């Protein structure tokens, strides 16, 4: 075979694996490394004994004149880099999986590639895993009879490992799916800038798929954090996955990076497998096959760009199925609405988050009465208030266990606890954290208002909260923290990772500001967004009368000044992680039934508003 001079673009963890595979492959000569971070390229070059490193892609290709390029960059920037690489005359390009984050981007890569003579492959290297090859051989040989059921699980998400899984099944059964049904969780993973499991990937955090093929054979796949544990792991939990193929005469299965086994009437056989891509052996075999194609010894590559496109069509169909709540054919294109399927699904999942209800509405009624009322309304998520002589739903002298027992009795979650500097704040933060809260709401203050400002005390509370996994969200309030500028100044003065904002639209309105502007400007700094209305035309002189004498005017759905359509739309876009909390004043003297009815009315109104978008 020929030897192909090669360049690697992207020298992170996966780039290193490709470097090992290429530098130990007789068919490729690794002549250069390129990475925007010079240190990554030079470190890998030292390990692989490569002399040429670059930080500029054009310079790297011009000087090394490679016949093959391996593009191992994040999927968020893959399409633009592929376009630049293919503007040069190269014989072969391999890109890391997933080819890109969205179907539209993968299709764009295909269009770019079709204008060239370059052979493009995608690093779907698991096809060469010992254990997967063994199961495929048993299926092809008819060892387990007619296939009746396929079940697969992986801790990796749809892009992290689902790409491998779906592509592997297409290859194993030599066809693409007819229909996909899917249920997903986790909007944050669909934003590649916020996916903390695998940065740069756009995927739901958890997905259940049913994939149906033309002969009515179905595969049931679970991808994500809630997938079952696999006892034998492949180094890290997100690589952990297995496949079970059940046939009429037996069963074949593998655990990735560990073993494969087959059980039939004739007995049981187990094959131990190497660790996941040990010494780059799977990736090296992918390149061996590529060399055979480039040399004309074979015409096809099982991990070519077209097969990766088919895989992504299936994954896009899965996300459309989750969004539309129906089976989707991968052959149907997503609608041209200006948003990708990933964006549609992210917005839908964010918009469907539970609406939290503040126990403030029930004043100083005891906790059991308050929780019982909320439970009767189907409320599962509450903002638990603890302010002496006002809304005392727990005291610091109580044990967290006693509070948790009441919450468990009524099936309540407590993502938010409001303390407002009342009593022993640190003890309340301890209780909030033990109850599973992730935000504690504090009173407003501003460095521009010295009478409210004690930075040393605030930093002490923030450090205490941060150690317990809590954010302190400071509520904007008349006379303490009024404007968007003051909120920004507060966050800048504190400069603390646990500092955030609780946004109260009526206080903004009375201070002469618009909530829409605050949401756009503060963005992800908003941890709590009050779903709280305001009288049209009201000003700050009427504030006390409104808060305590006219509570009906604050209830969402009462025809007030807040545009909840716009509020939901902007909140999903700019502060998707913020908790949405129904909260308003002045109901303490109402009878319980009247409070219940106001909550019921609010929820009906709010659900109708957000259903317009999600």
Topology of this protein?
Blueprint: E1 4-9, H1 13-23, E2 28-34, H2 38-48, E3 53-54, H3 57-64, E4 68-71, H4 78-86, E5 92-96, H5 103-114, E6 119-123, H6 130-140, E7 147-154, H7 158-173, E8 179-185, E9 206-212, E10 218-224, E11 241-247, E12 250-255, E13 259-264, E14 267-272, H8 281-294, H9 305-324, H10 341-351, E15 356-358, H11 367-376, E16 381-387, E17 391-392, H12 400-409, E18 413-418, H13 425-434, E19 439-442, H14 455-467, E20 471-475, H15 484-494, E21 499-503, H16 505-510, H17 515-522, E22 526-531, H18 543-549, H19 564-574, E23 579-582, H20 592-611
Parallel strand pairs: 1-2, 1-4, 2-3, 4-5, 5-6, 7-10, 15-16, 15-23, 16-18, 18-19, 19-20, 20-21, 21-22, 22-23
Antiparallel strand pairs: 7-11, 8-9, 9-10, 11-12, 12-13, 13-14, 16-17
Helix pairs in contact: 1-8, 4-5, 5-9, 7-9, 9-10, 17-19
Region (Disordered): 321-341
GO molecular function: nucleotide binding; oxidoreductase activity
Protein name: TIM barrel protein
Describe this structure in words.
InterPro entries: Gfo/Idh/MocA-like_OxRdtase_N (IPR000683), Gfo/Idh/MocA_oxidoreduct (IPR051317), NAD(P)-bd_dom_sf (IPR036291), Xyl_isomerase-like_sf (IPR036237), Xyl_isomerase-like_TIM-brl (IPR013022). Keywords: Oxidoreductase. This is TIM barrel protein. Residues 372-607 form the Xylose isomerase-like TIM barrel domain. Residues 321-341 are annotated as: Disordered. The chain has 614 residues and is α/β, with parallel strands linked by helices. The protein has three domains: 4-125 and 281-300, NAD(P)-binding Rossmann-like Domain (Rossmann fold, 3-Layer(aba) Sandwich), CATH 3.40.50; 127-275 and 312-347, 2-Layer Sandwich (Dihydrodipicolinate Reductase, domain 2); 353-611, Divalent-metal-dependent TIM barrel enzymes (TIM Barrel). An eight-stranded mixed sheet has the order 8-9-10-7-11-12-13-14. Strands 15-16-18-19-20-21-22-23 form an eight-stranded parallel barrel, surrounded by five helices. Strands 3-2-1-4-5-6 form a six-stranded parallel sheet, sandwiched between helices. Helix 11 links the parallel strand 15 (356-358) and strand 16. Helix 1 (13-23) crosses helix 8 (281-294). The chain is elongated. 48% of the residues are buried.
């Amino acid at each position: 075979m020929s030897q192909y001079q090669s360049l690697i673009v992207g020298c992170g963890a996966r780039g290193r694996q490709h470097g090992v595979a290429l530098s130990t492959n007789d068919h490729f000569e690794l002549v250069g490394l390129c990475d925007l971070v010079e240190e990554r390229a030079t470190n890998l070059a030292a390990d692989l004994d490569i002399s040429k490193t670059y930080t500029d892609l054009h310079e790297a290709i011009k000087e090394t004149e490679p016949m093959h390029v391996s593009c191992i960059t994040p999927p968020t920037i893959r399409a633009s880099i592929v376009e630049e690489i293919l503007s040069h005359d190269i014989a072969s390009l391999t890109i890391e999986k997933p080819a890109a984050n969205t179907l539209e981007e993968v299709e764009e890569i295909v269009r770019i590639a079709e204008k060239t003579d370059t052979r493009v492959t995608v690093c779907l290297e698991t096809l060469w895993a010992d254990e997967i090859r063994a199961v495929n051989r048993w299926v092809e040989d008819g060892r387990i009879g007619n296939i009746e059921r396929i079940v697969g699980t992986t801790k990796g998400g749809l892009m992290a490992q689902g790409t491998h899984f779906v592509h592997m099944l297409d290859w194993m059964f030599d066809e693409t799916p007819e229909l996909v049904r899917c249920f997903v969780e986790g909007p944050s993973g669909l934003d590649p800038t916020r996916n903390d499991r695998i940065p740069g990937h756009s995927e739901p955090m958890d997905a259940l798929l049913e994939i149906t093929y033309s002969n009515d054979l179905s595969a049931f796949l679970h991808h994500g954090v809630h997938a079952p544990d696999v006892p034998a792991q492949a180094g890290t939990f997100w690589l952990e996955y297995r496949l079970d193929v059940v046939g009429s005469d037996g069963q074949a299965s593998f655990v990735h990076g560990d073993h494969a086994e087959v059980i039939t009437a004739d007995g049981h056989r187990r094959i131990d497998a190497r660790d996941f891509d040990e010494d780059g052996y799977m990736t090296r075999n992918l390149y061996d096959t590529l060399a055979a194609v480039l040399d004309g010894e074979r015409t096809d590559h099982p991990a070519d760009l077209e097969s990766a496109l088919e895989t992504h069509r299936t994954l896009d169909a899965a996300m459309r199925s989750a969004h539309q709540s129906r089976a989707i054919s991968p052959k149907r294109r997503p609608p041209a609405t200006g948003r990708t399927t990933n964006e549609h699904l992210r917005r839908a999942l964010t918009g469907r988050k539970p609406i939290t209800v503040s126990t403030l509405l029930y004043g100083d009624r005891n906790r059991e009465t308050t929780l019982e009322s909320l439970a009767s309304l189907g409320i599962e998520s509450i903002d638990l208030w603890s302010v002496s002589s006002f809304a005392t739903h727990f005291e610091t002298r109580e044990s967290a266990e006693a509070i948790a027992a009441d919450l468990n009795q009524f099936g309540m979650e407590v993502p938010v606890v409001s303390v407002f500097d009342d009593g022993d704040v640190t003890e309340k933060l301890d209780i909030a954290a033990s109850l599973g809260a992730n935000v504690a709401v504090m009173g407003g203050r501003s460095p521009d208002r010295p009478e409210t400002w004690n930075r040393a005390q605030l930093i002490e509370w923030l450090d205490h909260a941060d150690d317990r996994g809590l954010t302190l969200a400071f509520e904007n309030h008349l006379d303490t923290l009024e404007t968007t500028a003051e909120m920004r100044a507060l966050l800048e003065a504190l400069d603390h990772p646990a500092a955030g904002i609780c946004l109260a639209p009526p206080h903004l309105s009375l201070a002469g500001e618009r909530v829409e502007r605050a949401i756009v400007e503060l963005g992800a700094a908003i941890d709590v967004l009050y779903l709280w209305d305001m009288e049209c035309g009201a000003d700050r002189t009427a504030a006390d009368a409104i808060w305590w004498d006219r509570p009906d005017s604050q209830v969402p759905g009462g025809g007030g000044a807040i545009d909840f359509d716009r509020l939901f739309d902007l909140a999903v876009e700019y502060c998707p992680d913020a908790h949405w909390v129904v909260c308003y004043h002045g109901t303490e003297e109402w009878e319980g039934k009247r409070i219940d009815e106001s909550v019921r009315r609010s929820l009906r109104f709010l659900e109708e508003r957000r259903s317009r978008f999600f």
